[in-house]
Each structure stands twice: as C-alpha cells, then as structure tokens.
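[Q] Does anyone have a clean structure-token version of this?
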Amino acid sequence: MSIFNDIAQGVVSAVQEHFRLSAPSKNDSSTGIRSSGLDLANPQKVQQCYRWNRRKCVRAITQPSSARCPVKLEETFNYFRGIWETVGSPAERPLPEPPTRPPVVEILSRDFVADCLRSCENSSPGEDLISYRHWREIDPSCTVLTRLFNICLQVADIPASWKFSRTILIHKKDELDRLDNWRPISLSNTIYKLFTKCMARKLSDWCEMNEVLSSAQKGFSPFDGVLEHNFLLAQHLESARRVKTDKFTVWLDISNAFGSVPKQVILDSLVACGVDVDFVTLISNIYEGSTTRVLTEEGPTPPIKILSGVKQGCPLSGILFNLAIDKVLHTIQENREHRAVLAFADDIVLMSDSAADLQELITTTSDELRALCLHLNPRKCATLHLSGRVPTGSRNSTFLLDGVPVSALEDGEEYKYLVKPAGFFLQKNFRTANEALSLIEKLCGSQLSQWQKLDALKTFMFPTMSFAMRTAQLGKTDWAEVDLAARREIKNILSLPSNASNHYIYGNRKLGCCGLPSAAQDSDYYLVDSAFKLLTSKDEEVAIQALGQLTRTVRHRLGR
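[A] Here you go.
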C-alpha cells in the first residue's frame, strides 16, 4: 500500500507543479477562515472570476458574507470531538441472511469516470489546491484517474492522503452561538471526491436495479423526490377537506443525523442488502483513519478522528445514510395499505388517519432510530391535526415524543418541508419572486460583462424560481411582474430603448436573439411537466394519486 500511496502522491505533485499550485505555508495553514478577496468593484477581477468559477463569482455578488461561527476553538474542538470520536453502540439484532446479488462495481471505465468528472461543479478545492477544472485540463480522457481508481478497487482502500479533510461550518438558522445550529461541511481533495462520486453512482444504480431502498425514501435518488413528497403530503391534507374527515401529520427532525450514525450501522446495512464483501471492505477502509480539522475564527482545530457518522460534503454520505435508516422506513410502513412515511434522507414525515395511530408511529420511529444511535429532536418537530369537518381547520391535539409534547401547528402557521411551506390557511408567499427580483438587480448592477450578465441570469436567476413554479406557489400574473423587471434590466444592459421589441430577448439564439426564458410562460410549462412526471412516476402510490387528482379535476371542470 505504501507504493500506491507514493504513486498517488506523485500524480498530485505533478499536477501541482504543472499548474504552479504552491502548497500553503505553515503560517497560512494556521489561519482561520479566509475571505475570498474578490474586489467586486474591479471589472477585470470580477469577469476573470466568473470565467474560472461562475457559481463562486455569483455567490460573491449576490450573497452577503455568510455569518461565521463565533464559538471558540477549544469549545468547537471538544464539541465535534465528542460527536465524531464517540462510537455509538447500536442495539444488537440478528442480521437476516443477506440476498445473493451481483457486485456493486468490478472495474471503472474511462468513459464512466470522465462522465462523472464532467458533471462536477468547479467547487472549492481541498488542501492540495487542485480543482476539478485542473483535472479536466490535464487528464481530459481520465486515463490516469481511471487507473488510480481501479487500483483502489483492487486493494479495497484509498491512499492515506485522501483521508484528510477540512471542515467548514455553515449556519442553518437560529442562535449563532449554538454549535448544533451549524452544519459541518467536509472539504476534501477533489480526487477523493471524484472517486467517491463514482462509487456513489455505482451504488445508487445498484440499489435501483435491485430495488433495495424503501419507496418512501427519495433523497439522493433518481426520483424527483422533492416534487413527489410534497405532492403526497398535499394530497394527504387535501383529502381531509374533500372527504370531510381528520388527517394527522408529524414532521420529524433527527439531531445531527449524518454525524451520529455509527460506522457499524452503515456496514451492517450494506451487508444486509447483499452488497459484496469487496465493496463493504472498501467503504470500511475509506473511513478507517479518516481525520478532519474544523476551521474556526482562531484557526483550525487539532485533527479529529471520524469514528462515527458520515462526512457531509462527501458524495457517498447520502446513499450510505439512506441505507443505514432503510430498515426503519420498512418497519414503519410494514402492513400498511397507504403511505405512512415520507423520507428525504433525514427529513421524515409521518401521516395517519387517526391520532392513536400517529402516536404509535411516532413511538415506533423514535424506538427504531434510537436502536441505530439516532435521536429525534422534539424542539424542531411539529404536528398538524387537520379536520375537514365544519369548521374546517386545525385542531389542538397533543402528541408526545419520548414524553415531550410536540408543538402543534395552528391555522396560518407553516412548517417548511423540502423548501415548500406546509400547513393550513397559509398566506401567499412572495419570497421566491422577491428573491428573483433582488438577484436581477444585483447581477445586472455588477461589474460582469454584458454576455456574463445574460449568462448569469439564465444560469442562476431563472432556475431559482423553478420549484415554486412546479408547486404552483404563485400565479402566472405574479411571475409576469418578474418578467417585467427582467426585461427592463436586460434592455438596459443591451442599450436598447424601452419600447424595443421583446422578441429579441426571448427569441432563439440560433436566430441571433438572446434566448432568455420567460417566467410567466415557464410557469405553465413547469406545471404541465410536473403533472406529467407525477402521472408517469415509477412510484405506484404517486402515479395512482396523481391520476385520481386529474380525474377529479376533469369531472369538476366538466360538471359531471
């Protein structure tokens, strides 16, 4: 293995030398989180940054400096050391006889690795300073990378230098001085992230081919899980008014889900679903000896061993976590005719037709997760008892989670589930449209060149509205206001008079036009596309409910 370590390090050193990437000095490495240093008033610097990394440049233009964690280095070190270096003891349960299934991966082809590399966004590099763009330029056919990765498969291990990472803290919400309100994101070397991306794709394809995961789990899957889960939840609540009955829902939050799941739980779940021994050994060795240093205002912490949890930011973490809790989802749904649980990674929703049954579901879920050393956080959970009987609205029902009452939503109160607000009698939310207007103003007022501004609008502004359009959060007239503001700024960028024809803005680029989308028109397209996706979903429950809603809508419109 030492020879392989030297070979891998030699490849990295050659790339660093080719691009003149000097490793940070000891003085630099001891500093804390550094600012990007982008001078937004300098057109040359801004345009150069956009050509190198569009996402990073747009983030610097549109988003203010993110809040930094004020917690002291020693406290941060002790907190994460207590999480990652604490090995949980999952409940001992007999493992069923695993099914016999084909290997997850035997060898990687150059085309497959190249496809994975092409799909990688040029995000922040690791300590070796090598970005995905560097790899694409120096090894476009992925010949060297493929050979390195196939050696990893043969020895079922990765080079020691790939096991080191830095961790940054991203604020989620609420108080800044509470470390549980900060999400740890691992920044590993890009060669490691590319390899684990290849493994994650192979494992995901293997799970889909063998139908391993519960149909309730839509996180990190080929399904449009956000759309489908929001649709099923909306249908569950809408049926209360349609059938004039009561419906019960609870949104559950797992405390530090990705950082708490024991390594043994992950390995046991892989074995239980029939993953081959070589791949299980590879996953075990990837985490064996892994360390990270958390970046703070005072500098990086001492190295912390990762003995528990998965690394957020690692491409493998999502599918591994899904497999770890899959048994929980199967237990909840067992012997139930209709969907009782929705899961998007660690975001879990339970649905029932009776209060007693929902309480039983909550207790079962808590017990099953506790057996995996995972714990629910009652403070961040919420329930909704919606009654379709007159007067239609929420009811104040109490549900207990480990003896602690869970907060109940009232009329007008919302719980944000997978971006979309959920609740009863919610007011129209113009936040998405307002954010789009703010993006238009910031991008068009920046020092980007003309073509870069148009490219940024198409690439980063319009896509921010797609989910709100898919889920019909605003009407077509509301999106038309966004179009009006965008047209005004675009004509100003192109030095066009205000009464210039709009066809030049929206026309096809092949005909010499700008080819910008229209939010109002796209809102119609997205609704049709969403309906088609739901009706043709591979999830039978989704397709049946979508067809039922379509049938009811047509009958209502025809008056039959």
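[Q] Thanks! Anything notable?
[A] Residues 166 and 424 are 43 Å apart (CA to CA).
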